[in-house]
Amino acid sequence: MDNTGYSNEGSTSDEDMVEITGATLDFSTTEDVPPLGREYGSVGNSDMVDVNGVPKLMDLLDEPVPGVGTYEDFNTIDWVREKSKDRDRHREITSKSKESTWALVKSISDAFSGWLLMLLIGLMSGALAGGIDISAHWMTDLKEGVCLNGFWFNHEHCCWTSNETTFQERDKCPQWKSWAELIIGTTEGPFAYIMDYLMYVCWALLFSFLAVSLVRAFAPYACGSGIPEIKTILSGFIIRGYLGKWTLLIKTVTLVLAVSSGLSLGKEGPLVHVACCCANILCHLFTKYRKNEAKRREVLSAAAAVGVSVAFGAPIGGVLFSLEEVSYYFPLKTLWRSFFAALVAAFTLRSINPFGNSRLVLFYVEFHAPWHLLELIPFILLGIFGGLWGALFIRANIAWCRRRKTTWLGHYPVLEVLVVTAITAVVAFPNSYTRTSTSELISELFNDCGLLDSSKLCNYDNANVTKSSNELPDRPAGADVYTAMWQLSLALIFKMLITVVTFGMKVPSGLFIPSLAVGAIAGRLLGIGMEQLAYYHHDWVVFRGWCSPGADCITPGLYAMVGAAACLGGVTRMTVSLVVIMFELTGGLEYIVPLMAAAMTSKWVADAIGRESIYEAHIRLNGYPFLEAKEEFSHKTLAMDVMRPRRSDPPLTVLTQDSMTVGDVETLIADTAYSGFPVVVSHESQRLVGFVLRRDIIISIDNARQRQDGIVSTSRIFFTEYTPPQPPNSPPPLKLRAIMDLSPFTVTDLTAMDIVVDIFRKLGLRQCLITHNGRLLGIITKKDILKHVAQIANRDPDSILFN
C-alpha cells in the first residue's frame, strides 16, 4: 500500500497540495474530467494489408486493453457509466444462463455473491470489534495494576473467581495488585498515591506514543475518525490505500492503544472505518465488486452500518446511520443487505461476549419509572445545551485543526499527541470520574440507583426505604452525592475542553463516546437537581399530582441518557438514527419521546448557529470534493456563467472525429493538463460527437504501437463508425470509437445552475458539456460546481482540492 503523494501526467503551474489525514495528495491535474469510455481497446492485428495493398483499419475490439475504463487515484468515478457497465454485465449473464446448466449455476452464484459478501463482512467486523473491546478493556486496567493469576486478565475478570470480594467492594481482591502495591508494598499513604499516579501517566504516554508512531510509520490514513473520508469515498471519490490491508491492521492495533491511553476519544467512529476496510478487502474476492466502483460503494454503505452495529450493539440504528449520515447512493437492495450484515455482525459480537454481561455494549441499562409530561421541559433544556455545545465544539475544533494545518504544530504530530496525553493523564488521575474509561463513566451515569449500588452517585439516605429495589422512592442525597456532583462538574469542563484539541490528532479518534460523556454528565447533574427539588418541594404546583412523597418520580439516569443523545446530536446532527441507537442501547422503548424531543431541539439549535455537522466541517476543511446533498442552492446563475472556457479564456480544446493524426493528438496531450476531451465533427462546425478520456487515449495509442507494426505519428485517428478508404502505402489508421462515450451528458447554456447542481448530485456526474443550438460551447466539471458553491457562500473557491 502506498500512501505517498501521487501526481498525474501533465501537471500545471498550480502545485498546491491537499492533506488527507496525514498523507499528502497532489491534485495538480486541474481539469477534473472523468474517464468516460467502454472497457474496450485497440489490439494489434497480424495482417494489416489487404490484397490490393491498402492498409487495413486498426479496429480491434476483440479483447479489452488493460487499464482502459479504469480510474486514476484521487479522481471521482462516473456513476452513470458504472451503472451502465453493471447492467450490461447482468444482461450478458442472464442471456447466457439459458444456454447451459453451468451458465445457470454461474448466474445463481452471481446473484448470491452479494449476500455471501455481507455474511463475510459481518463475521469479520464482529470478530475484530470483539477483539478491540477485550484488548482495550484489559489495557485500560493495565494503567492501574496487574492480575497475579494471569496478566491477561482485566480487573473485573481477575476478581470474578475470588472468594474474598464483598458486594460493596466487588473490585477489591487479593489477586489484583495496584502498581504501588507491587513496587513499594503498600496501597496507603502519599507515596503509594504518587507511585500509582506516575505509573498511570507513564502507561498513558507509552500507549499514545506507540499509537502515533505506528500510524506515522506504516499507515498515515489510519488516523482520525475516518467518517469524513468514508463519506467522500462513498460519494464517488477514489483514495487508494485508504481502505487497504495496512490501514486495517494499523487502525485496529492503534485504536486499542489510543483508547487505552485515556485520551478523550472513542472507538465508534474508527470502527466504521475498520468495517469499511474489511468490506473493501473482501470485495476483491468477487469479480462483480472488484471491477465496478459503484457496486463496491453499495457494499461500503452496508459496511458503515456494520461499523455502528458493532460499536453500539445497535443493528437497526447502524442501518439508519448509514442511510441518514454517511451514504450518497442507497438503493433499497442495499438497505436489505445492510440489515443482514449488521445482524450478522451483532450476532458475532454477542457470541464473543466481550464485556461478560451478555450484552453488546458496556452501558446497557434499564429504567423502571415512567416519565411525566412536565419532564419534557428539562429534556428540551438538555436539547438546547446539546445544540449549543455541538455548534461551539465544531467551531472550536475546526479553528484548532486549521491552526494545526497552518502552523508549526502540524509538523510535530508525535509531540502534540504526547503533550495532550500528558495533560489528559495528569489532570484526569485525581478525579475518579475522569480516571476511569469513558465507557465505564457513561455506564455509571446511565445507571438507575438501587439499594446495593456502591457508587458515590447512589449514596442516598435510605432510612425510610421499605420498598423493593426496583421501585425506590426519591430520597434525600447524602454527602457523597454532593461530592460526586462537584467532581462531575469539573469532569464536564475538562471533557469539553480536552476533546476540542484531541479530535483530529494523528491517532484513531472517534467522537461518539466523548460527546455522549459530556451530555451524560450534564444530564445526570440536572437529573439529581430535579430529583432533590421534587423531594424537598413536592407541594409545588409543577410536582403536585404526579410526585407525591414516597413516590419514584425522577430518574437521574434517564436525564443522563437524554443529555447524551442531545450532545451527540448537536455534534453529528443525526436525528432518526440517533434516537434508534439510544433506545437500542438502553432497551427502553417508552423513552423514545424524550429522546426525540432532545434530538430535534439539539439539531434546531445547532443548525441555527451553523448548518454543518462535524464531519461536513472536516470535509470542507480538508478540501475534499464532496457535493453536499443537504445544502440548498438558491443563487440565480446560469450554466454559461459557470462553464469553462470563460470569455477571456482561450477556446475549448477539442478533438475532431476524423482529421487528426496520432502525432497531433500526442502533441495536444503533451501541451495540456486536461483529463479528457470532447470530440466534435470539425473545428468549424463544433457539432458534438462524444467525449474521450485522456488516459484511455494514451493507453490505446501505446498499446497499438506495441502490438501492431505501422502505427506512426502520421497515422490518422478516427472516432467515426465508418472510415473512408485510405490512399495506398499510407500508414494504417487507428480507430478509437470504442473508447469514446457516445452519450455524454449535455445541457444548454441557459440552464439554471440550481438544476445543473441537482443533476450533478442525483446522477453523480463528473462533468457536463454545454451546448447552444447543438454546437459545443464549454464544459462544467464537478470541481467547477464546488468552486461556484464555495464562492456563493463567501468561501475561498481555491480551497476545493487545493488547500
TrEMBL record:
In the record, what terms sit under GO molecular function? Answer: antiporter activity; ATP binding; chloride channel activity
Mark the transmembrane ranges.
112-132, 197-222, 243-265, 271-287, 299-323, 373-394, 414-433, 484-505, 511-530
| Record-level GO cellular component terms | endosome membrane
Where is each CBS domain found? 643-707, 740-797
How would you describe this protein's topology in the membrane? Multi-pass membrane protein
Q: Does the keyword Membrane apply?
A: yes
Q: Which InterPro entries match?
A: CBS_dom, CBS_dom_sf, Cl-channel_core, ClC
Q: Which domain of life is it from?
A: Eukaryota
Q: Which SUPFAM superfamilies match?
A: CBS-domain pair, Clc chloride channel
Which Pfam family is one of this chain's hits? CBS
The UniProt entry lists the main location of this chain as membrane
Which keywords annotate this record? Antiport, ATP-binding, CBS domain, Chloride, Endosome, Ion transport, Membrane, Nucleotide-binding, Repeat, Transmembrane, Transmembrane helix, Transport
Tell me where it resides.
Endosome membrane; Membrane
Which family is this sequence assigned to? Belongs to the chloride channel (TC 2.A.49) family.
Put simply, this protein is called Chloride channel protein
Instruction: Look up and give the organism this protein is from.
Output: Umbra pygmaea (Eastern mudminnow)
